[in-house]
Amino acid sequence: MKRQAAPLIVGLALITATVLGGCTGGSSTSTAQPPPDQTGQTSTNAVQQPKTPSVFRANLHSEPSTIDPGLAKDNTSGTVVRAAFDGLTRLDAKAKPMNSIAQEVKTSADGLTYTFTLRDAKWSNGDPVKASDFVFAWKRALDPKLASEYAYQLYYIKNAQEINAGQASPDTLGAKALDEKTLEVQLVNPTPYFLELTAFYTYYPVNQKVVEANPNWALEAATHVGNGPFKVTTWEHKNKMVLEKNENYWDQQAVKLDRIEFVMIEDDNTELAMFEKGELDWAGQPIGGLPTDAIPSLRAEGKLVIHPEASMYWFKMNTTKPPLNNIKIRKALAYAVNRQDIVDNVTQVGQVPTMGILPQTMILKPEGYFKDNDVETAKKLLAEGLQELGLDKLPVLTLSYNTVDRHKKIAEALQDQWKRNLGIDIKLQNKEFKVHLQDLNELNYEIGRIGWSADFNDPINYLEMFRDKDGGNNDMGWENARYKELIIQAAAELDPEKRAQMFSEAEQIMMDEMPLIPMFTDVDVWVQSDKVKGVQVDPLGFVDLKWAEMIQ
User: Fold this and answer.
1) Pairing of strands 259-263, 55-59
2) CB 408 within 8 A of CB 401
3) Tell me: the pLDDT tens digits for 439-448?
């Protein structure tokens, strides 16, 4: 990939150094091979003992919003989908793509055409994985009727955006199955990170035969079909989910776990208590959460794993309704936040206050676009905004967050700061995660918490989601014509310096209008059993359980 600024390279080097051991992948062979004995044969002299099932137990924290890769949009659903599916490529421990379902990849000299040769692979029901399954999955995700919030990730493919807008036939998509094992993809512009994109779940295949036969195929374990390391065998909604090793997976020798058992408990204190009782093998992010009050003691005891990632913590604002349709009111709220106090006294594990949209791994303006805790400027902007709105005082505003201890504590800190600094009253509202996401998407909120982990380590991954007010992950009703123009230009620009300049101007526009409140570049924190090995948490914050194992 081409990078456009030195801080990006430095930041990536810092975060990759802390990744837990995962895999060492080749491009077309199994990513893990069992060692042969000295004779190259299996010994038959030893008495075979019954094998104890290898089981990994963790908390998903909430019901997945979906386990359909065409609809997945969050860490919870992504964790399950990544375990149950496999893409053309898969990310290694450094978030670099390696061949997976694709055995071979050829790229044209102009960078516009990719030809993937698929390996022999099967779905969990025994059907062969075909090139046409990828084409079908991508057309399905682009169908406006599916309402995939991540459809825009496919816009790099020729005619994908037009199809998603209903302006072109699905048959014009620049993806064709030349035969059952050959997939040809034509891009709109050369995209150096395209093979990283093909490791993302929106690019995963779905079994065309299964999906066409049953539109509700992904709603229950009994009908779910994937092509990944594991298969979903039990799904007790809002209670637990079980995945078992997929005997039809092409790289099953690399899969050491027999079973993954997920519970769905929203309370972080309960999650930690279960871990301490030996009922869970992992507690905390990126799968679950830890109570903030327990962080200092866990850290002092040397139990806490702290993993920097390309992730931002924000509060989005609904810009379509007063008073948050006023730019000065939005900026006043953003300027009055004391981020340093929050990361020092609430989150406590090295988050970095960030006064911009981008995380530290791809930051363009390290000093930020405004000062942290600039209360005097915030007061001035609030007064001017109230005058423009014809108000003497702001009405009570509602801040929404999903039910997690950390989010609650951060929301309470904001509530206190805004009251103390600006005299603003804030009502806090917690929601189940799936409901919270839906309300954000439907603009059924005023101020809403959200975290964003990079899908690939490039600024466009953050900035492009705000290009269109009706974009799947915009959730703010905000749009700016010049911003949109810059993002479109940057997508086609190959010169790193020009591209960085476009991104900088775009980020400046966004911070001038402040549709969201940037808080900090986040980290993942967790505790794990000494028996756990090989859980891959990459620099993007993705967790991949393909190579996980339990050491007895």
Assistant:
1) parallel
2) yes
3) 999 999 999 9
| Amino acid occupying residue 496 | P
pLDDT one-digit tens code per residue, 198-231: 999 999 999 999 999 999 999 999 999 999 999 9
Cα dist from 552 to 22, 338, 525, 527, 536, whole Å = 18, 46, 24, 18, 19
Q: Which helix (DSSP H) or strand (DSSP E) does residue 418 occupy?
A: helix 405-422
79/72 Cα distance (integer angstroms): 10
Pairing of strands 240-245, 549-550: unpaired
Q: Report the C-alpha gap between 373 and 236 in whole angstroms.
A: 45
- Partners of 58 in beta bridges: 262
d(CA 289, CA 527): 10
Query: Given this model, what pLDDT does residue 242 score?
Result: 98
Contacts of 304 (CB under 8 A, 6+ apart): 295, 298, 349, 525, 526, 527
497 in helix, strand or coil? helix
| Cα atoms in the 13 Å half-sphere on the side-chain side of 406 | 25
Instruction: Tell me how crowded residue 253 is: count the other CB atoms within 10 A of its CB.
Output: 12
DSSP 8-state assignment for residue 85: -
The answer to whether 67 and 77 have CB atoms below 8 angstroms apart is: yes
**Axis-axis angle for helices 481-492, 496-513 (nearest 10):** 160
pLDDT in tens, 413-444: 999 999 999 999 999 999 998 899 999 999 99
Q: What pairs with residue 122 in β-bridges?
A: 128
Helix (H, G, I), strand (E, B) or coil at 331: helix
And the tokens for 163? 């199809």
